[in-house]
Amino acid sequence: MEGTKNDFSKGSILSNMISLAVPMTLAQLVNVLYNIIDRIYIGRIGDGATLALTALGVCLPLITMVTAFANLVGMGGAPLFSIERGAGHRDEAEGILGNSVTLLIILSVILTVFGQIFKTPLLRLLGASEDTLPYARSYTAIYLMGNIFVMMTLGLNSFINAEGFGKTGMMTVVIGAALNIILDPIFIFLLDMGVSGAAAATVISQFVSALWTFRFLRSAKADIRINFKKLRLVSRRVKKMLALGLSGFTMAVTNSLVSMTCNAALQRHGGDLYIGAMTIINSVREIFSMPVTGFSNSAQPIIGFNYGAGEYGRVKQAIRYLSVILIVYTAAAWAVISLLPKFFIGIFSTDPALMRVGVPSMHIYFFGFFMMALQFAGQSTFTALGRSKQAMFFSVFRKVIIVIPLTLLLPHWLGVNGVFTAEPVSNFIGGAACFITMILTVYRRL
C-alpha cells in the first residue's frame, strides 16, 4: 500500500465519498447535457419539431445499447481494478486496464457495423412511424460512426474515477459537453442540418473527450497507466471482467428493452404524441437521476478499495452513508418534480398538445421516486464487492421481470397511462427486494 495514491483506507469515509461524488456528479450532469441539449434544440427547430423530438426518443434505446457495452467493460473492469489496487497488486490492475482498452475497441467496431446494416428495421421495431423514421435514421447513421469515441470515453473514464481522480473524470465529460453545447446550434441551425447536425456535434465532442481520457491514462499523472504491452487479452482476466460487468451491461440493456417496449406500447395505445411525452419524461429522469448515479459511482471505488484492504468496518460505513444520502435526495427530487411538471416539460417543448398529455403522465411515472434509491444502493454494493450474480439478477428482476410485462399488460386496463404506471410499481418492488437482500447477505456478514 505504501506510495499508493488516493488510499481510501485512510481518512473520513464521508469526506472521501464527497471528494469523489462532487466532481463525479457534476460530470454526470454535464454528461446528461449531451442528449438533453440535443433535445432542447431539436424541440425548437420549427416545423416538424415535435416529430423530430419524438424521433430522438425512438433512437434512445440504440444509444442506451452503446452505453450498455461501455458499461460491460468499464463497470466490469473498474471494480476489479479498485480491488487489486487496494490489495497492492498493481501489475494485475494494469492488466485489467489494458484488456479493457482492447475490449472497448473490438465491441465498438462490431456495434457500428451491425447498427449501420440493420438500422432501418431496428428503428421500426423501436417504435418509429413513417413520419419519424427519416429523422431517426439520419441521427442514427451519424451517431454510429462515432460509436468508438463514445465507448472509449465512457469505459475508460470509469478507471480515472476508480483511481480517485474525480476532478479529472469530471473534466473528461465537461470538455465534450461544452463543445457539444457550442457545436449544436452551429450544426442544427446555422448549417441547417437539423437532426443530423445534432448527431454530428455529439460525435465530434465525444472524439475530443476520448482523446483527453486516453492521454491522461497514458500520462505520469495517473497512478496506474495504460501499458501497450498489457493490451493482449487474457481469457482468465476477461472472464472475470465480463462476469462482473454483466450487472451494468444488463441494467443498460434492460433499460434499452424497456424503452423499446414503452415506445411500441405508446405507439399502439397513444401514438407519436405520447412517445414525445415519454422522451421528455426520460430527459427529466436523466437530470434528476444524475446525482444518484454520481454518488453511487463515488462509493464503488471506496467500497472496493477498503474491501480489498480488509477494512470491513469502513465498507459498512460507506454503505450506510450511500443509502441515507440517496434516499433523502430522491425524496426531495420527487417533491420538486410533482410541484413543477409544466416547468420541466416547457424546457423541451411549448407544444400545447404535448403539455396536455405530459403533465399527468409525469405525475404517474415519478410516483414514489425515492424507492429507486434502494435499488441503486444495493446494486452499487454488490458491484463494488465483485458479487456479479446478485448484481446481475436484480438488474434483470426489476426491468425484465417487472417493468416489461407490466408495460404490456397494464394498458389493457388503464389505457395509455398503464405504460407510465409500470415504472413506479417496479421501483417499489425491485428497490425493496434488492436493498433487503443486500442487507441480509452482505451488510450483516461483513
Describe this entry's structure for a reader.
With 446 residues, the chain is an all-alpha fold. It has one domain (13-445). The protein contains 16 helices and no strands. The chain has helices at 13-42, 49-86, 90-125, 133-145, 147-162, 166-190, 194-217, 235-269, 272-308, 312-339, 341-348, 352-365, 371-384, 388-409, 411-414, 417-441. Helix 2 (49-86) packs antiparallel against helix 3 (90-125). The radius of gyration is 21 Å and the shape is globular. The model has no long low-confidence stretch (mean pLDDT 87).
Provide a quick synopsis of the model.
By secondary structure, the protein is an all-alpha fold.
| Gross morphology | globular
Structural class by SSE content: mainly alpha
The number of distinct helices, counting runs of at least 4 residues, comes to: 16
Number of strands: 0
Task: Tell me, rounded to a whole number, the average pLDDT.
Answer: 87
Q: Characteristics of this structure?
A:
single chain; about 450 residues; mainly alpha; about 85% helix; globular
List the helices and strands and how they pair.
Layout: H1 13-42, H2 49-86, H3 90-125, H4 133-145, H5 147-162, H6 166-190, H7 194-217, H8 235-269, H9 272-308, H10 312-339, H11 341-348, H12 352-365, H13 371-384, H14 388-409, H15 411-414, H16 417-441
